[in-house]
């Protein structure tokens, strides 16, 4: 049996180097993801995560020899997840990097026409290079391009010297005006300028130093679970496949806007220069109660026909009353014969709920586990 702790501790194995790939909000702690997969499924089983985020459950499942299937609506989370389970070969990624880098002078004029924010966030050389990345990488259809894109996304913003940008948070991009005012107030109006090629080559060498995971039996679909699951259920039925574990963490009601937090990364992969409020369903802050119920109801409901008779449903959610109660109600409705247990996570670190300003007494997260 694989020692869960060793797989993801430190940076000694390829799996450990890729497991944490991708700054993203609301991630499962990795050892937790490995423990749940190991406890509630066995090698060769099928597991599903309809809200896959940056793919921690799918990665753990894949490494532990489970056929794992994720669905993620946010292309940034999808890119991190889909790349970490099977990154493209290093040499091919480097070849593409050099090709894209060599085209950067073509974007000199476009770079100088971008809104001021971009010119305060990135030095001239970095900005021309980013425009070349944005215009030339076919991340949706070409896996080496997806790999290179997701590596660049990791370093798109963060601390000066550790990222391609002026000083910024790594996990979440702040708004344009907020950032510009902040840089001015800190005498950081001039962004650092350096050669992005050397910077990225060094990071690529580090990431691939111990090799890379090649998980073949797992995948993550880019799309909306409320639409994708019916197609998946049909294919599973045609192939006589039943899932042993549904392991997920849905977005929490009215808390995180995964698209807004990632607006700068979404720009790099082709999104708008000026972030827009996303009015599309399930791409905002999840603050409409009716839509939220529909999301959980349709998603968990669509999974029912795919689940094995002895399946486990493991859902980590927010402890606040409304989210917790509605999640319980919907899960009980769809899995009425399963036995219920609740694990109250006594989380000592600041949780997502707290970071986003919830001051209610029901802080933290809770696990709803349904077993047969
Ligand atoms: C709490 S996060 C999951 C994080 C994940 N457990 C991890 O460790 O990375 C919830 C995820 O659900 C995604 N999501 C929200 N609505 C969705 C939908 N309709 N279909 C697929 N994914 C969706 C969000 O984009 C977000 O990445």
Rounded to an integer, what's the Rg over CA atoms? 21 Å
Beta content comes to: 5-15%
Total count of domains: 2
CATH-defined fold name of the largest domain: Rossmann fold
Name the CATH superfamily classification of the largest domain: Vaccinia Virus protein VP39
Q: What small ligands are held by the chains?
A: S-adenosylmethionine
Unreliable segments (pLDDT under 50, ≥5 consecutive)? 355-359
CATH class of the largest domain: Alpha Beta
Helix run count: 18
CATH architecture of the largest domain: 3-Layer(aba) Sandwich
Percent in helix: 40-55%
Calculate the mean pLDDT score and round it. Answer: 92
The geometry reads as globular
Question: Can you offer a commentary on this structure?
Answer:
With 372 residues, the protein is α/β, with parallel strands linked by helices. The protein has 2 domains: 4-85 and 215-371, Rossmann fold, CATH 3.40.50.150; 90-208, no CATH class. The protein is built from 18 helices and 7 strands. It has helices at residues 4-8, 14-19, 30-40, 56-63, 75-85, 90-102, 108-113, 116-121, 124-136, 143-154, 176-185, 196-208, 225-238, 258-261, 263-268, 289-303, 321-334, 352-355, and strands at residues 46-49, 67-72, 219-222, 243-248, 307-318, 339-345, 365-371. It has a 7-stranded mixed β-sheet with strand order 3-2-1-4-5-7-6, with helices on both faces. Helix 6 crosses helix 10 and helix 13 (225-238) packs parallel to helix 16 (289-303). The radius of gyration is 21 Å and the shape is globular. The chain starts with a helix and ends with a strand. The structure holds S-adenosylmethionine (SAM). Residues 24, 26-28, 51, 53-54, 56, 71-74, 77, 224-226, 249-251, 258, 282, 295 line the site of S-adenosylmethionine. S-adenosylmethionine binds at residues 24, 26-28, 51, 53-54, 56, 71-74, 77, 224-226, 249-251, 258, 282, 295.
């Amino acid at each position: 049996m694989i020692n869960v702790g060793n797989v993801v501790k430190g940076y000694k194995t390829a799996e450990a180097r890729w497991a944490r790939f991708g700054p993203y909000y609301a991630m499962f702690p990795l050892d937790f993801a490995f423990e749940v997969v190991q406890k509630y499924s066995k090698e060769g089983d099928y597991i599903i995560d309809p809200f896959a985020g940056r793919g921690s459950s799918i990665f753990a499942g894949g490494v532990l020899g489970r056929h794992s299937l994720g669905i993620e609506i946010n292309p940034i989370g999808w890119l991190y997840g889909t790349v970490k389970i099977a990154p493209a070969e290093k040499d091919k990624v480097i070849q593409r990097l050099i090709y894209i880098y060599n085209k950067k002078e073509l974007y000199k004029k476009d770079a100088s026409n971008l809104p001021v924010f971009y010119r305060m966030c990135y030095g001239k050389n970095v900005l021309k290079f980013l425009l070349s990345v944005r215009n030339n990488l076919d991340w949706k259809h070409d896996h080496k391009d997806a790999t290179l894109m997701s590596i660049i996304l990791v370093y798109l913003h963060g601390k000066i010297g550790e990222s391609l940008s002026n000083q910024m948070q790594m996990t979440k991009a702040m708004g344009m005006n907020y950032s510009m005012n902040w840089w001015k107030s800190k005498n950081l109006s001039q962004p650092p300028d350096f050669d992005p090629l050397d910077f990225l080559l060094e990071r690529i060498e580090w990431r691939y130093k111990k090799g890379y995971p090649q998980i073949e039996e797992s995948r993550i679909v880019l799309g909306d679970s409320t639409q994708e699951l019916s197609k998946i259920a049909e294919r599973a039925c045609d192939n006589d496949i039943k899932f042993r574990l549904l392991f997920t963490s849905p977005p929490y009601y009215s808390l995180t806007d995964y698209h807004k937090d990632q607006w700068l990364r979404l720009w790099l992969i082709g999104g708008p220069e000026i972030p827009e409020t996303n009015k599309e369903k399930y791409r905002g802050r999840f603050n409409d109660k009716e839509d939220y119920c529909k999301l959980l109801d349709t998603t968990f409901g669509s999974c029912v026909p795919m689940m094995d008779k002895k399946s486990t449903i493991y859902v980590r959610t927010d402890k606040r009353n409304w989210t917790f109660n509605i999640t319980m109600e919907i899960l009980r409705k769809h899995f009425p014969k399963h036995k219920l247990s609740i694990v109250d996570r006594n989380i000592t670190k600041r949780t997502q709920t707290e970071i986003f300003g919830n001051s209610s007494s029901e802080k933290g997260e809770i696990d709803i586990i349904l077993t047969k």
